[in-house]
């Protein structure tokens, strides 16, 4: 096989409930992932050794060495099957880098599917999901797509029913935010407010029944009333300009606005296609309409 290409979606967390910090440093989560139609494409081709290249949005900020999560995915799969990780991975970026939309995780899931096909391994889906979980908390959902509740640190997935399409506009901020930094700021804000950041002191979070029902019904107004992100205050604390971005989206007609994941991309739920077009026009520096749900990693 000369080369294979896999398409992988971005995600938005329509619920991100953050529990306490665990002894392993992660946080207990109840997060509802929704895959959106904004895609990276990962192409795997034969090579002498491991090589990473990238093109598209923000490529100057994409690492092209062994630290790239897609490269780590190829190495992990090769090690599992006792083969050499001889592959050229080329990543066409459209998902914002360090934008809270799981672009790196999507590339890792894409690399696993692409290398599995290129090398003819025939890895069972359960094995690919286990490798995804080892690589990162968001990687399993990038493989699965659609909609799902993520528990544990987000890697334990329960599929959710979606009864219709939802229209989004994503406003991309300059520069990224470090996910670990945002979680540390969340902990700091909780302590500063007189609370605790420890899992032993906080109840484990759960899915919001109203949000799950809104997805099942395909109701954008109901979903807009249920959106939540416990990391939003921390993201805004680290990047105060996000408050203005969120307000601008609401003023431009969004049903609801929230920071996507750990940010700094902001997500706006639109009531219609025309409203999404008007919303995107309100952010000339960079805004991208997208439909959800979207399929997970797909071999093209």
UniProtKB/TrEMBL annotation:
E.C. number(s) listed in UniProt: 2.7.1.148
Keywords in alphabetical order: ATP-binding, Isoprene biosynthesis, Kinase, Nucleotide-binding, Transferase
Domain of life, source organism: Bacteria
Binding site for ATP: 96-106
Domain GHMP kinase N-terminal positions: 68-146
Alphabetized Pfam families for the sequence: GHMP_kinases_C, GHMP_kinases_N
Pathway given in the UniProt record: Isoprenoid biosynthesis; isopentenyl diphosphate biosynthesis via DXP pathway; isopentenyl diphosphate from 1-deoxy-D-xylulose 5-phosphate: step 3/6
An individual GO BP term: terpenoid biosynthetic process
Protein's UniProt keywords contain Transferase: yes
Homology family: Belongs to the GHMP kinase family. IspE subfamily.
HAMAP family listed in its UniProt record: IspE
Function recorded in the entry: Catalyzes the phosphorylation of the position 2 hydroxy group of 4-diphosphocytidyl-2C-methyl-D-erythritol.
Protein name: 4-diphosphocytidyl-2-C-methyl-D-erythritol kinase
Source organism of the structure: Actinacidiphila paucisporea
């Amino acid at each position: 096989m000369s080369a294979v290409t896999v398409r992988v979606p971005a995600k938005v967390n329509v619920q991100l409930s953050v529990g306490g910090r665990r002894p392993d440093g992660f946080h207990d989560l109840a997060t509802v992932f929704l895959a959106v139609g904004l895609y990276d494409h990962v192409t795997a081709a034969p090579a002498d050794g491991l090589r990473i290249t990238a093109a598209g949005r923000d490529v100057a900020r994409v690492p092209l060495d062994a630290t790239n999560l897609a490269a780590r995915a190829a190495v992990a799969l090769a090690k599992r099957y006792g083969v050499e990780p001889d592959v050229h991975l080329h990543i066409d970026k459209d998902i914002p880098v360090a934008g809270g939309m799981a672009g790196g995780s999507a590339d890792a899931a894409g690399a696993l599917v692409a290398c599995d096909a290129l090398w003819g391994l025939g890895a069972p889906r359960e094995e690919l999901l286990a490798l995804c979980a080892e690589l990162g908390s968001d990687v399993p959902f990038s493989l699965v797509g659609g909609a799902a509740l993520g528990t544990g640190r987000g890697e334990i997935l329960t599929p959710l029913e979606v009864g219709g399409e939802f229209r989004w506009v994503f406003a991309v901020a300059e520069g990224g935010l470090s996910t670990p930094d945002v979680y540390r700021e969340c902990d700091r804000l909780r302590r500063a407010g007189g609370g605790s950041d420890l899992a032993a002191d906080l109840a484990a979070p759960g899915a919001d029944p109203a949000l799950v029902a809104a997805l099942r019904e395909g109701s954008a107004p109901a979903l807009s009333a249920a959106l939540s992100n416990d990391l939003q205050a921390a993201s805004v604390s680290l990047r105060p300009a996000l408050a203005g971005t969120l307000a601008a989206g609401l003023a431009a007609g969004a049903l609801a606005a929230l920071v996507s994941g750990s940010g700094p991309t902001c997500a706006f739920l639109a009531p219609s296609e025309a409203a999404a077009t008007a919303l995107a026009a309100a952010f000339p520096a960079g805004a991208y309409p997208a439909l959800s749900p979207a399929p997970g990693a797909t071999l093209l």
